[in-house]
């Protein structure tokens, strides 16, 4: 079921002649209950896939917005197991929307790859993006994931050459996450024309749907990326709504704001016909 949920999501988007919308939030920011409501708001407003961030103390790939989100979540005491419980709660009422856990290898390694894979599958997680675990070092993890049909989703960048892309694609499944900028999440904005050739190469070499993320914040940016990719990933712009809610004390504003943004992004993507 897990991998098929992901492939089904891309098939539905392709059937509608559009790219998929992949949305990211940090679990437990501003709290777990609000995260649950945010997940529903994203789904109800056009998100095809939800990435659920697991907070970690040293998020090397993340910019200021997600770094602060992780710290707020950790301050609330959110753990990897809490993130899985949140996914399980969502999965009780939604058996269709793919859930991707995005985070770092240390907490997963500490739990144990086998125990984590079993717990993730039980919670309804479809795959993970562990940004600091390269292909050369995830063999044991992939073996455990294979027992539960979990996807190992890998990252590629504008500096990933073709030979390296083949290695990145080896053993990967679900989709390929293409980092549009050479930097951290939320940093700058990418030029679709500059990376269109990279995207085509990634599709050809991997044989997987390719989603573009990092630096996509608005409907206009999402529409441009939707012209060249199978999916568009937006994270920091959603996390910023959680920060505003945290600062105002009105946590209910986060799911509302995220829902409005998801609708904007989804509508913009749908207006762009795929070639």
UniProtKB/TrEMBL annotation:
Organism, scientific name:
Hyphomonas beringensis
Please report which protein family the annotation says this sequence is part of.
Answer: Belongs to the TrpA family.
Any idea what this protein is called?
Answer: Tryptophan synthase alpha chain
Role, per record: The alpha subunit is responsible for the aldol cleavage of indoleglycerol phosphate to indole and glyceraldehyde 3-phosphate.
Its assembly, as annotated, is: Tetramer of two alpha and two beta chains.
Q: Which UniProt keywords apply?
A: Amino-acid biosynthesis, Aromatic amino acid biosynthesis, Lyase, Tryptophan biosynthesis
Gene Ontology MF, one: tryptophan synthase activity
CDD domains from the UniProt entry: Tryptophan_synthase_alpha
Catalytic reaction list = (1S,2R)-1-C-(indol-3-yl)glycerol 3-phosphate + L-serine = D-glyceraldehyde 3-phosphate + L-tryptophan + H2O
Under which EC number(s) is this enzyme classified?
4.2.1.20
Q: Which domain of life is it from?
A: Bacteria
Query: What pathway does the UniProt record associate with this protein?
Result: Amino-acid biosynthesis; L-tryptophan biosynthesis; L-tryptophan from chorismate: step 5/5
Q: Which HAMAP family match?
A: Trp_synth_alpha
Q: Give a Gene Ontology cellular component term annotated to this protein.
A: cytosol
Matching entries from Gene3D superfamilies are given as: Aldolase class I
Q: Which residues form the active site?
A: 51, 62
Lineage of the native species? Bacteria, Pseudomonadati, Pseudomonadota, Alphaproteobacteria, Hyphomonadales
**The gene coding this protein:** trpA
């Amino acid at each position: 079921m897990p991998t098929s949920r992901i492939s089904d999501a891309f098939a539905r988007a392709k059937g509608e002649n559009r790219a998929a919308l992949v949305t990211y939030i940090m679990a437990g920011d501003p709290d777990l209950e609000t995260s649950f409501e945010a997940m529903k708001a994203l789904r109800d407003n056009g998100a095809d896939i939800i990435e659920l961030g697991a907070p970690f103390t040293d998020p090397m790939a993340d910019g200021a917005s997600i770094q602060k989100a992780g710290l707020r979540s950790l301050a609330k005491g959110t753990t990897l197991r809490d993130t899985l419980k949140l996914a399980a709660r969502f999965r009780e009422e939604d058996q269709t929307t793919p859930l991707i856990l995005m985070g770092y290898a240390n907490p997963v390694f500490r739990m144990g790859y086998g125990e984590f894979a079993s717990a993730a599958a039980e919670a309804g997680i479809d795959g993970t993006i562990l940004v600091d675990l390269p292909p050369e070092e995830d063999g044991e993890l992939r073996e455990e994931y294979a027992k539960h049909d979990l996807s190992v989703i890998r990252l590629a960048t504008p500096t990933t050459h073709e030979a390296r892309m083949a290695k990145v694609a080896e053993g990967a499944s679900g989709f390929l996450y293409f980092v549009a900028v050479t930097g951290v999440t939320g940093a700058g904005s990418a030029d679709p024309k500059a990376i269109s050739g990279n995207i085509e190469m990634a599709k050809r070499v991997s044989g997987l749907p390719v989603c573009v993320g990092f630096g996509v914040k608005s409907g206009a940016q999402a529409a441009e990326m939707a012209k060249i990719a199978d999916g568009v990933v937006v994270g920091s712009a959603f996390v910023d709504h959680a920060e505003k809610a945290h600062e105002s004390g009105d946590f209910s504003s986060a799911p509302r704001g995220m829902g409005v943004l998801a609708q904007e992004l989804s509508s913009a993507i749908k207006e762009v016909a795929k070639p």
